[in-house]
Every structure is written in C-alpha cells, then in structure tokens.
TrEMBL record:
Stored SUPFAM superfamilies: lambda repressor-like DNA-binding domains (SSF47413)
Annotated protein name in UniProt: Putative transcriptional regulator
GO MF entries: DNA binding
InterPro entries per UniProt: Cro/C1-type_HTH, Lambda_DNA-bd_dom_sf
Highest taxon in the source lineage: Bacteria
Sequence intervals crossing the membrane: none
Length: 68
C-alpha cells in the first residue's frame, strides 16, 4: 500500500466516491493507493485533498515524508 493509500484508509475514505468527485476512473485511484510504482501527479493530489476536505499541504507532507 502507498502512503496515499494509508492516508485515505486512516480516514475511512471511500475511493469510489473520491474518483467520481475528481473525475478519474476508480482504477486510477486504486493504482495510486496500492501500486508503489504509480506516479501521483500534483494536480491529482490537490484534487483528492479538496474532494475529501483535507489540507493539500498536510496531505503532501504525509505522502512524501520519506523523501530527503
């Protein structure tokens, strides 16, 4: 599971609802939450954050916490 997947799971977020709100296929959101090799784009992160009522900066910090 990816950091994005952990973030959404910890908040009990329905991925299908988020996918519908941001206009992506549910498969794309599943890929972003389960596949470590998937590349999360900044615009996707921003839209996901807005769709779930989260602060995009907080979400970015969580998702990228391992980067140095």
């Amino acid at each position: 599971m990816t950091r994005l997947g952990e973030y959404l799971e910890n908040r009990s977020i329905n991925k299908s609802d988020v996918a519908r709100k941001i206009g992506v296929m549910p498969q794309r959101l599943t890929e972003l939450t389960k596949n470590q090799g998937a590349h999360l784009r900044a615009n996707e992160l921003y839209l996901i954050a807005k769709a779930i009522g989260a602060d995009p900066c907080e979400m970015l910090d969580y998702v990228c916490q391992d980067l140095k």
